[in-house]
Amino acid sequence: MKIGIVLSKPPSYSETFFVSKIKGLQRHGHEVILFVQSGEEAFDLCTVNTALPIYRRNIVKQLYYVLKVFLLFIRHFQVCLRFMQTERVYGTGWIGVIKKVYVNMHILTKKLDWLHFGFATMALGKEHVAKAIKAKMAVSFRGFDMAIYPIKYPNCYKVLWEQVDKVHTISNDLYQLALTNGLNSEIPFQKITPAIDVNNFNRADADHQKSSDTIKIMTVARLHWKKGLTYTLQALKLLKDKGIDFQYTIIGEGTEYEKLMYIRYQLGLEKEVQLIGKVPHSTIKELLVAHDIYVQYSISEGFCNAVIEAQAMGLLCVVSDAEGLSENVLHNKSGWVVPKRSPEKLATKIAEIIELEKNLKKKITDFAMDRVKKEFNLKKQQQEFVTFYTE
């Protein structure tokens, strides 16, 4: 079976979700082709087809690629004609049709059994490509796809829902959001959660010894409004006011850095909170070992690999009830789920966790580590993706 996966760019090797999926499919004898918008990053796990470039300020180069597209159009006339006819039926003007032929030519020239869009937003403008090449069409949901983008662009997936053959969701909540956003409940779907390398993220070979009474808390997140870091800092201010001794580390970079630094200053948390920026994924394990509590108090979150890794490393995990987080962490079993946007409730829960008896903390972390090994391992995820395309 030949499977095409559409992404904006090749995944880095630390992005286990797509890398693991590709390896698993190849291991089961399937050919995988990656279709990307830009391919600057080296990626050699499978064939990578990059979209033809657009040169707005270099007419000579642009004319070269227009000629190249014209020759490919002639060579793959029947496929391109089917694509154009369908676009016209759906009301796309001739200029729009020509543009879509150009940007999708790297896919239209390939024969596939499945064309799978790694994000729902990646399928926009490409809804009719799969039918044109006579392939089945699949699409995956992420948090941004279902929880945020449709708010800004209502009914954005109307055409997509009419063309898709099967959908993949990483959480039940995101699937329910997709139904709210117009997905037909009769379209087949499969839930396949993110997974991690449980042999690497394993507390057993990296048990950590506390060197002080200071509670060490951490979060791994892009510095973006949806991660709820402002609410987290407000909760920690309440802990400080109660006299609780803690250190909080935020790992990640993003557009909210300046804002968060100012909030840290405004709340008087300069000594307690540090933002250390982006670090190599290989060092995340070392940082997890040095901390006690992991907080992911997002406003919106599809699932979150970092939370899985934290559970695997034996941290006490506190998350919000945003989308897939309440499936990632089971309340009062593998951690705690706190209603989002409520710093008071978050602060209260963290204070309660700190005061828990040692045997109760161990019961929670043992359950979480065991569950991660069973439910969120790469082997299980790979097998589920094989099933996705064959059943």
Account of the protein in words:
GO terms for molecular function: glycosyltransferase activity. Keywords: Glycosyltransferase, Transferase. InterPro entries: Glyco_trans_1, Glycosyltransferase_grp1. Helix 5 links the parallel strand 4 and strand 5 (136-140). With 391 residues, the protein is of the alpha/beta class. It contains 16 helices and 13 strands. Helix 1 (16-27) crosses helix 16, helix 3 (77-89) packs across helix 4 and helix 9 (229-241) packs across helix 14. It folds into 2 domains: 2-50 and 111-195 and 378-390, Glycogen Phosphorylase B (Rossmann fold); 203-375, Glycogen Phosphorylase B (Rossmann fold, 3-Layer(aba) Sandwich). The strands form 2 sheets. The chain has a 7-stranded parallel β-sheet. Strands 10-9-8-11-12-13 form a 6-stranded parallel β-sheet, sandwiched between helices. The two termini are 13 Å apart. The model has no long low-confidence stretch (mean pLDDT 90). The protein has helices at residues 16-27, 59-75, 77-89, 94-108, 129-132, 143-152, 158-163, 172-180, 229-241, 257-266, 284-289, 305-312, 325-328, 343-355, 358-375, 378-390; strands at 2-6, 31-36, 47-50, 114-117, 136-140, 166-169, 189-191, 215-220, 246-251, 273-277, 293-296, 316-320, 336-338.
